[in-house]
Each structure stands twice: as structure tokens, then as C-alpha cells.
Specification:
about 375 residues; two-stranded antiparallel sheet; 2 domains; disordered N terminus; Rossmann fold; alpha/beta; single chain
């Protein structure tokens, strides 16, 4: 790797080497010093279950049961580590790959598949999960997240006795090239919004390497608008937990936004419509396979004798059950009536949408066939 380029590891926070050896960090180690073996096992469990489910979803797409699938394969450490730092009064704005964070926030992973089967737009209940809709438009949600954070700051000021909370906006390296993300950074900085921008730099914006997107580390985007920035080893789940804990404390305390760049790797394709063999080689893939976030934590816990065969088997059975439920549930879903596309477009009735629905219903009725109402 070029020591001066965007793939540089200079300043990268790490607490667990890729061989599973623990290292101390003078600033961030204290944020995870109370992590016990059970907490670490639960992070290993979450990463393992999410990966197994992710692979099952890929198989379902290959079988024609899903229109598209977006894997998080290889990025489990960044997601589970950061997600474990969240509190009840925090709110998450994901892009479309944050399956691990969704899992930690209580979203049923099987329900996530409805989006990729074309049955809904990702509409789970925020009141239950503190987790916004998946956003397929690259970078668009960063503005929503910033606005929500600005409102959250005003609410906190009006109700100082309320427990403070913050917002986390997840996006990839490709999204940093979008104007929406740049505008979000500026607004968040100027208005001192309680938000953490968590960039999962997985090295590729579809087929375009990060080296074609920037000449400096992506974390410098935050520094350019005056907010603290952190570069972290995104395949080190412990380090990701620590830096996100610090960043959220910073945001909740009224000190403003933070930009985190988690250096990780998309081990799979961008989506199931992508062929990564066209733009990367086996040597590169092997380099990152040797830095697998699950294997890294596994090595560390195994060396300490804290991953029993019984626990491994329990997790394997949990993953198997989730996969079986995903298969049976997805295959049971029926195509909804076409008129359902007009539901939940807006929170309140909307005259234009109502008029379009009436027109479409008449259009359907003009076909005197059994297919008219489908």
C-alpha cells in the first residue's frame, strides 16, 4: 500500500492485529476496558449470524427469489463494533448495506428481504427500532440524518433533563463523492449537530477504486469542514466499538459532529448484479481475507479459551434457524395488489397521489381479465 495515499494505515486506530493479538491505544483503549468475555462473545455471535444470513440472502437471489441483494460480507466488524456503542436515545440512518446494525437495533433480518423482493420500501417502525429506512439513493440519507440531528439538538436544549442522544449516518466511500454528503458535513459542522458520520471505506464505489475517488484519506473530508476525524481499522470490531463510543459521547455532550473512516473491505460483490473479478485480483482479495474481522476475533477469543464448542454450536444452530426461516418466509410471500404502490407514499393523505390511484384503478378495470386486480 502507498504510505501516503488514501489506503494508508497512518493514524489508523487498532486494538487487535489481524493475527488476533491485542494492542493498546493511548486514547481509545479506556472506552473498551470494561468489555468482558461475554460482551466479546456476543459481538462474535452477531457477526457470525449476520454473515450466515447474508450468504443465505445471496443464495435466495441466485435462485430468483430476490430481485437484488447487497452483501455486507467482510464489513461485519465495522457494523457490529459501531452498533454496540449505540444507546436507546440514539438514532441510525443507514444506507443499504448496514445489515449488522439493523440486527443489533432489533430489525428482523428476514423482513429486510422484503425490500429486495420489491414488496416494500424498508418501512419498519422507527419507534421500535431507532433505525431509519434503508436508502438506495447514494448519500441522500445523510441530509435527512443531519436535519434529524439538528432537531434533536433543539429538543435537547428545550428539555435539558432528557437523556441526550445522537445520530449515526452510515455510508460508503463512494457516497463521499456525492454533493449531498458534502452539504451534510457543512450543515452539521456549522450547526454543531450531534451526529457521527460513519464512513465504511470498503475500497470500492461499485467498480471504482477509492484511489480514483480521492488523493487523501476520506477522513480529511471531515477535517476540511472543522470536525474531529478518526481513522479506524474497520475489521477490528473492538477498535470500532471504542472509537464510536468516543464519538457518540462527543456528539451527545454538545461538542458537535465527528467523522469516522472505518477502513474495511467488501469481500463480496457490490451487489449481486456486479462481477468484482473484472476490476480486482485474487492477490488483493487474499490480502483482505487474511484480515477477516470474524476470524480475527475468533483467534483472539480462542487463544484465551473463551469460545467453547458448546457456544459455537449454539451460534451455528441460531444461524441455521435464521437461514431456514428466511428461505421458507421469502418463498411464501405473494405478489401484492398493484394498488398497494400508492400506500405509505406520504404520512398524510395527498391529493395528487389519490388522483393517480383513482386513474390507475380505472386503467386496471379497463382490462377485463383475471389479471386486472393483481
Amino acid at each position: 500500500m502507498d504510505s501516503t495515499g488514501p489506503l494508508s494505515t497512518d493514524g489508523l486506530v487498532s486494538m487487535l492485529t489481524h493475527e488476533g493479538v491485542p494492542v493498546e491505544h493511548e486514547t481509545f483503549s479506556r472506552y473498551v476496558q470494561n468489555l468482558d468475555a461475554e460482551e466479546l462473545r456476543q459481538m462474535w455471535r452477531a457477526m457470525t449470524v449476520v454473515r450466515a444470513w447474508d450468504l443465505e440472502a445471496t443464495s435466495l437471489q441466485r435462485q430468483g427469489e430476490l430481485g437484488l441483494w447487497v452483501q455486507s460480507l467482510g464489513q461485519e466488524g465495522a457494523q457490529i463494533g459501531s452498533g454496540r456503542a449505540l444507546r436507546d436515545n440514539d438514532f441510525v440512518f443507514p444506507s443499504y448495506r448496514e445489515h449488522g446494525v439493523a440486527h443489533l437495533q432489533g430489525v428482523d433480518l428476514v423482513e429486510v428481504l422484503r425490500i429486495f423482493r420489491g414488496l416494500q420500501h424498508g418501512a419498519w417502525t422507527p419507534a421500535e427500532h431507532n433505525f431509519h429506512l434503508y436508502t438506495l439513493v447514494i448519500g441522500a440519507h445523510s441530509l435527512h440524518a443531519t436535519g434529524y440531528a439538528m432537531a434533536k439538538a433543539r429538543e435537547q436544549k428545550a428539555n435539558p433533563e432528557q437523556e441526550p442522544g445522537a445520530v449515526v449516518a452510515y455510508f460508503g466511500d463512494g457516497a463521499t463523492s456525492q454533493g449531498d454528503v458534502n452539504e451534510s458535513l457543512i450543515f452539521a459542522s456549522v450547526y454543531n449537530a450531534p451526529i457521527v458520520f460513519f464512513c465504511q471505506n470498503n475500497q470500492y464505489a461499485i467498480s471504482e477504486s477509492v484511489t480514483r475517488q480521492t488523493k487523501v484519506p476520506l477522513a480529511d473530508r471531515g477535517r476540511g469542514v472543522g470536525m474531529p476525524t478518526i481513522r479506524v481499522d474497520g475489521n477490528d470490531v473492538i477498535a470500532c466499538r471504542a472509537v464510536t463510543e468516543w464519538a457518540l459521547d462527543h456528539a451527545r455532550s454538545g461538542k458537535g459532529p465527528v467523522f469516522i473512516e472505518a477502513l474495511t473491505y467488501r469481500m463480496g460483490a457490490h451487489t449481486t448484479s456486479d462481477d468484482p473479478t473484472r476490476y480486482r485480483d485474487k492477490e488483493e482479495e487474499q490480502y483482505w481475507a487474511d484480515r477477516d474481522p470474524i476470524a480475527r476475533l475468533d483467534t483472539y477469543l480462542s487463544a484465551r479459551g473463551e469460545l467453547s464448542d458448546e457456544f459455537r454450536e449454539d451460534v451455528a444452530q441460531e444461524a441455521k434457524a435464521l437461514g431456514e426461516r428466511a428461505r421458507s418466509t421469502v418463498k411464501s410471500w405473494k405478489r401484492p395488489p398493484l394498488l398497494d404502490m400508492f400506500k405509505d407514499v406520504y404520512a398524510l393523505p395527498h391529493a395528487a397521489v389519490d388522483a393517480e390511484r383513482v386513474w390507475f384503478e380505472r386503467f386496471q378495470e379497463s382490462f377485463d381479465t383475471e389479471e386486472a386486480g393483481r
